[in-house]
Amino acid sequence: MASVTAVPSSANAPSLKGSGDDVSTSKGMEDSIHSFKVADLVIELSQTHKAKPDLTNLVFGTVFSDHMLTIEWTNAGGWQKPHIKPFGNLSLHPASSAMHYGVQLFEGMKAYRGADDKVRLFRPMLNMNRMAKSAERACLPAFDRAELVECIRRLVQVDLEWVPQSDSASLYIRPTFLGTERSLGVKKPSHALLYVILSPVGSFFSTGAKPVSLWADSKYIRAWRGGTGDCKMGGNYGASIYAQHEAVHYGCQQVLWLYGDDHQITEVGTMNMFLFWNNEKGEEELATPPLDGLILPGITRQSILELTRKWGEFKVCERYLTMADLRCALKEGRVKEMFGSGTACVVSPVGRILYQGENLHIPCQEDFPQLASRLMKELTDIQYGRTQSDWSVLV
Amino acid sequence: MASVTAVPSSANAPSLKGSGDDVSTSKGMEDSIHSFKVADLVIELSQTHKAKPDLTNLVFGTVFSDHMLTIEWTNAGGWQKPHIKPFGNLSLHPASSAMHYGVQLFEGMKAYRGADDKVRLFRPMLNMNRMAKSAERACLPAFDRAELVECIRRLVQVDLEWVPQSDSASLYIRPTFLGTERSLGVKKPSHALLYVILSPVGSFFSTGAKPVSLWADSKYIRAWRGGTGDCKMGGNYGASIYAQHEAVHYGCQQVLWLYGDDHQITEVGTMNMFLFWNNEKGEEELATPPLDGLILPGITRQSILELTRKWGEFKVCERYLTMADLRCALKEGRVKEMFGSGTACVVSPVGRILYQGENLHIPCQEDFPQLASRLMKELTDIQYGRTQSDWSVLV
């Protein structure tokens, strides 16, 4: 497990400045000053190599690649050198604030291998911008987002063989950021650990792209105004597992999260939600709830909005949608499709919603409705390099 | 770091059945079947002993004793043997659900050394009951609460010298329970780790029992209906640090958490909240918000309610209190005292609240008002064994 080398930043790295999601579009210009740098990267290669898994029936996120990226921070010493090293357990102080007070956040992104054998990331700066926002909310230190993308690119380069040779599989990338304050006061951590692990994943739809069934009930609320629903902080997710079990108890696969007395539709499981319908005014409209602080600002969500607005074929709207709106539209035959969006699945059609004891059936021609199919194709074409796009960043 | 011994459960352990907080008062009678057992405890004593700290100016929760308790659980193998072993870092899989999805919870309790040199716990079964409830909400496995108290007693026995010889200091006990699922799916964990660490703490009021100042604003909400506000899950706390910083920015020490359009008063920092006043009907009343799912069911809160109801000297009420109620009462001179309650401080008087740009001054004769002082004395008399009570459990 030895072979420690300092490796300079690759000179031919594609500049993120040229991508569609320029770092300068987000606020923290100052964070470059005190951040870790890819130029300081220390790489310790693993002497052992795990066998690659058969992706056909692999459960999501259960197998990890040979290496990981770790970067430590202390209030006294600032950011330390980033390290790529053999994948292994973390040694954490038992008082770490990540484990007591949920001072933690994560991101989810993927590396895709195209038919041209090139490996691409999809809009990584959007993940970095969201991660920086989560870090601010969690009182974790700022970092240079472009430097982190570069470190992640280097990690994927080291484990390049782990990016599946398949246009229905990918290498899932999980940046994680923990408060490792070694004391029990509830406070801004004086120690932190940012790390990135990699997990090869098969198609989300390997077992068949069946539309999902949802349990819609206001008994559990995912997020609320003044909370952390728009950040990828761990507490949003752990609190959801109990509701997910109740959904399964009622014969549904996932939770449709509602909010407020009027039962606004917010998210689906861990996905953003889209409704394609003829709206109250009879306009053909793709609608998704607005980013009002309750909703996770999904990268796939944003990409779907941008793509469909570019098409200009129907109205695209960020707006509130209530269960009453949906029920009325179903009754009047105005609903065309409903689907969730996320990094794991791209899009996931909804087939049925159990709400107030009634099964609401959502139209789903041939299991995978037309708009969802088209979005799936356009997005994966970009991700796997079949379509040129400045949303792709070469590894 | 060797010396591994299996130690049978101490025969003369005081039965929890005799305490005021009988285990049978809470629901899960079934959880004894599959739980770990103190009889299986394996003790590995540390060969080194850290120096005890000077408690005078010690920051809360920064120093830990020589040993810790760890108990592992897997879905396949159930609960493993409990271990008392040298305090040290935990080795955790980097995909552990505790670190990604906030599948984590904790408890806070204390061991007190009396003038009689006996060491006591204060109502430990109440902590265990709350911990079991948090575990259910976090989808972590059930355990036998009486067995865990016994394991904790044994841990404190092993580190008995760490219980300070002082009636203004104590040994803080931090049970922690983590999901250690080694995969990235958001689901009920198949691995878990329960551990307990000990930290000697000085008087909360060593720097003088100054009344705290609070920032009351509805910008940040601690908890909401359908969430986890009544459980001691980590996500409740990490999300609060940002608001705490804003409170400090406005020249206040802690956050007074509001809820709803009518700005209900819910909690103070990490404490429950009490208002001692003449209510709208002119009745002398001790009031605290009800346990409606938003409020943490504090052990000190419950003890204060039980004590004052036993006194029978004034009305004791769990009721909603809004900022308008408080402002009106202050204007009319009906407020006697306001204080937070918690394990760390017992009671902590409130001196000032910044609300909608206005400083509300709460009466605070001699810094520590009369009812708060009396409660502080009665509770610490029990905790340190100066008053006999079935709330005390001998270690």
TrEMBL record, chains A, B:
<dbReference type="InterPro" id="IPR001544">
    <property type="entry name" value="Aminotrans_IV"/>
</dbReference>
<keyword id="KW-0028">Amino-acid biosynthesis</keyword>
<dbReference type="GO" id="GO:0009099">
    <property type="term" value="P:L-valine biosynthetic process"/>
</dbReference>
<dbReference type="InterPro" id="IPR043132">
    <property type="entry name" value="BCAT-like_C"/>
</dbReference>
<keyword id="KW-0663">Pyridoxal phosphate</keyword>
<keyword id="KW-0443">Lipid metabolism</keyword>
<keyword id="KW-0963">Cytoplasm</keyword>
<dbReference type="GO" id="GO:0005739">
    <property type="term" value="C:mitochondrion"/>
</dbReference>
<keyword id="KW-0808">Transferase</keyword>
<feature type="region of interest" description="Disordered">
    <location>
        <begin position="1"/>
        <end position="28"/>
    </location>
</feature>
<dbReference type="InterPro" id="IPR036038">
    <property type="entry name" value="Aminotransferase-like"/>
</dbReference>
<feature type="modified residue" description="N6-(pyridoxal phosphate)lysine">
    <location>
        <position position="232"/>
    </location>
</feature>
<dbReference type="Pfam" id="PF01063">
    <property type="entry name" value="Aminotran_4"/>
</dbReference>
<dbReference type="InterPro" id="IPR043131">
    <property type="entry name" value="BCAT-like_N"/>
</dbReference>
<comment type="similarity">
    <text>Belongs to the class-IV pyridoxal-phosphate-dependent aminotransferase family.</text>
</comment>
<feature type="compositionally biased region" description="Polar residues">
    <location>
        <begin position="1"/>
        <end position="13"/>
    </location>
</feature>
<protein>
    <recommendedName>
        <fullName>Branched-chain-amino-acid aminotransferase</fullName>
        <ecNumber>2.6.1.42</ecNumber>
    </recommendedName>
</protein>
<comment type="function">
    <text>Catalyzes the first reaction in the catabolism of the essential branched chain amino acids leucine, isoleucine, and valine.</text>
</comment>
<keyword id="KW-0032">Aminotransferase</keyword>
<dbReference type="GO" id="GO:0009098">
    <property type="term" value="P:L-leucine biosynthetic process"/>
</dbReference>
<keyword id="KW-0100">Branched-chain amino acid biosynthesis</keyword>
<dbReference type="InterPro" id="IPR018300">
    <property type="entry name" value="Aminotrans_IV_CS"/>
</dbReference>
<dbReference type="InterPro" id="IPR033939">
    <property type="entry name" value="BCAT_family"/>
</dbReference>
<dbReference type="InterPro" id="IPR005786">
    <property type="entry name" value="B_amino_transII"/>
</dbReference>
<dbReference type="GO" id="GO:0006629">
    <property type="term" value="P:lipid metabolic process"/>
</dbReference>
<comment type="subunit">
    <text>Homodimer.</text>
</comment>
<dbReference type="GO" id="GO:0004084">
    <property type="term" value="F:branched-chain-amino-acid transaminase activity"/>
</dbReference>
